[in-house]
Amino acid sequence: MHLALYQPEIARNVGAAIRIAACFGVTLHIIEPCGFPLKDKEIRKVAMDYGALSPPTYHTSWASFSNSVLRRTNRLILLSTKDARPIYEVGFQKDDILLMGQESAGVPDKVRNSCDICARIPLAENARSLNVSVAAGITIAEATRQLGI
Q1: How far apart are the first and last CA of the chain?
Q2: What is the CATH number of domain 2-147?
Q3: pLDDT of amino acid 35
Q4: Where are the alpha helices (DSSP H) in the chain?
Q5: 2, containing H or E segment
Q6: Which residues of the chain have pLDDT under 70?
Q7: How would you classify the pairing of strands 76-79 and 97-100?
Q8: Which of 8, 104, 112, 147 makes the best surface tag, with the fewest CB within 10 Å?
Q9: Share in percent of the chain as helix, strand, coil (round to 5)
Q10: How many CB atoms lie within 10 A of CB 67?
Q11: How many CA atoms lie within 13 A of 111 on its CB side?
Q12: What strands, in cross-sheet order, belong to the sheet with 57-59?
């Protein structure tokens, strides 16, 4: 399984995603540009020593990621708060790519339209959204539960 962060804006969320990827045994992909320097100390502070267990793969742009063998051969599942089926109804596969959008804006329509599935985490009625790394962890946990991993 793969976790992809689309142009992340908050270094701490990348650090948390590194830990999540290491703890669940998934590959982390970071689609640039990022809203901070990739050597930001906040990434290391939150990731702790997990970066060595699961070093991220960097893609210089959306086009670079889209044209990669990884993307061409695996389903891309966007986690979104908009018009999406609950994650419990997705039927995850072991090589799926879980895509998380920017913290402030999600993903543009061209990215959304290139996804195979859009999924959401059901929230309480008045809740808007979860932190991106929290949502990634919840979704990976559900995917691994479904797959019996």
Answers
A1: 11
A2: 3.40.1280.10
A3: 81
A4: 11-24, 41-47, 62-66, 69-73, 109-113, 132-147
A5: strand 2-6
A6: 37-38, 40-50, 52
A7: parallel
A8: 104
A9: 40, 20, 40
A10: 12
A11: 23
A12: 57-59, 27-31, 2-6, 97-100, 76-79, 117-120, 85-86
**Contact in structure between 118 and 99 (CB atoms under 8 Å):** no
Residue carrying the six token digits 């959306």? 62
**9 contacts 103 by C-beta, under 8 angstroms:** yes
Q: How far apart are CA 115 and CA 71, in angstroms?
A: 10
Residues 6+ apart with CB under 8 A from 117: 75, 76, 77, 78, 85, 90
Q: What is the Cα–Cα distance from 110 to 114, expressed in whole angstroms?
A: 6
Question: Tokens 């990215």 — which residue?
Answer: 111
- Picking from 73, 74, 80, the residue whose alpha carbon sits closest to that of residue 92 is 74
CA 20, CA 79: separation in Å to the nearest integer? Answer: 16
